[in-house]
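Support request, priority: normal
Reporter: lab tech (M.K.)
Component: structure prediction queue

Hi team, I submitted a job for Magnesium transporter MgtE from Psychrobacter namhaensis yesterday, and the status page still shows it as pending. I've pasted the exact input below so you can check whether something in the sequence is tripping the parser. The sequence length should be 467 residues. Please let me know if I need to resubmit or if it's stuck on your end.
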Amino acid sequence: MPTPTPDQERPSVLPGDYNPAEYSAEYKLLYLQGLVADKAYEAITEFLERQSEYEIANLLESFPTQNRLLIWAQVPENLKGEVLAELEFDTRQPLMENISSKEISLFTQDLDAQDISEILDTVTESVRSSVMATLDEDIRVQVNKLDTYADWEVGSYMDPDLIQVSDSVSLAEVQNWLRENDELLDDESQELLVVDQSQQLLGLLSLVDLIKHDQSTLVSELIDTAVTINDRLDIQDAAAIFRSEDIRFAPVINSYGELVGQLNGEDIMEIIQDDVDSTMKNLAGVSQDEELFAPILTSAKSRSVWLGINLCTALLAAAVIGQFEAVLAQVVALAILMPVVASMGGIAGSQTLTVVIRGMAMGQIGGSNRLWLLNKELWVGAINGIIWAIIMAFIAQLWFHDIKISAVIGFAIAINMTAANVSGISIPLLLKRMNIDPALSASVILTTVTDIVGFMSFLGLASVLIL
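Reply from support: The job had stalled in the queue. We restarted it manually and it finished. Here are the results:
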């Protein structure tokens, strides 16, 4: 069956034997919107029963708060715990306000420590204590371990539930143990963690080696080297290691070399996605905590701070223009052309800024290559500045038939685009050295620089050449 598109009319019902994978996320959203509008509660429940916890979480985050509560009430009980763990904090919190500790205990009884820790971050201390008292001892220990780490540390993201074997046992013993505990391995498992008697990590045992070698062979003879991650390392640095080493998972050790957990590729992908979302919001001057369907006043408040900062920078640029009131009053053409200079500089600077911030996020900028990049952007800005200066000067000559005006706009564009490219790399590097997130404030500073340099060069040259 062909995949329906959002442009198609929403069906009143979906086929009883339909395959959810054949329908796009947006198509499902349109279908669910119709069910919510009709208050078709039974149909909502039937629809949600066919979705995974990831799909349900995505659908919930695609509705305003009031509709989320309605949909949440229809989520199958056996999926509520997994759905809660997949939701963003701001989406999860309102859904849990009226849920008792007894209900939360039921939701979490089959979840792993990571998901339980995620859910309990949303509740009060008294509810947390009540839920923790109902957990199995092993799970409770793991949840408490996760909670000892700061939000930015690897330990708070690791999976403390490990499949580890001793280096002193034979391959036959390992295989027998895995058969007796067949729930330990999932479809993605390819290696086992090998430790000694003191829980020191020794390396990895691949499942291929486990099968193909003589079963009397000791595990210690087949240990592969493992790329390890320290539990106190910044999670962003850990993500960079995953990218550079091209690994699917990494054992997590503490400062004593003891194995405490493992960091999985899916967790790193989530971190990278969150980092991308955060960077995009910061570049636009939007709070990291603002979600798409946040209440109106919440969104307005979170954005007003950067709007105020932007207003201050705009007033600063306006003050620069005010210093050249005399030349603007005499030559109207300058007022017409002035926005072109600022716009060309702003675009050139933004291009550089985007590339640089991405490179910084990927861990690609540091040491001696910073000077090389600065020199590169200087020449890129100069070359593009000269090219577009000539083009704009030619256009201005055709438009106003004044060689002085053409020269002013040409020189101003060349100067501003060069300065914009240099600023696009130097500003984020300077902010990083000051321990300020470049994505959060670099764009505002860059806009101010390109506006002021553009207006100063344009109007300053006009004052010298025309007046």
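Confidence is low (pLDDT under 50) at residues 1-9. The longest strand covers residues 201-206. Let us know if anything else looks off. Ticket resolved.
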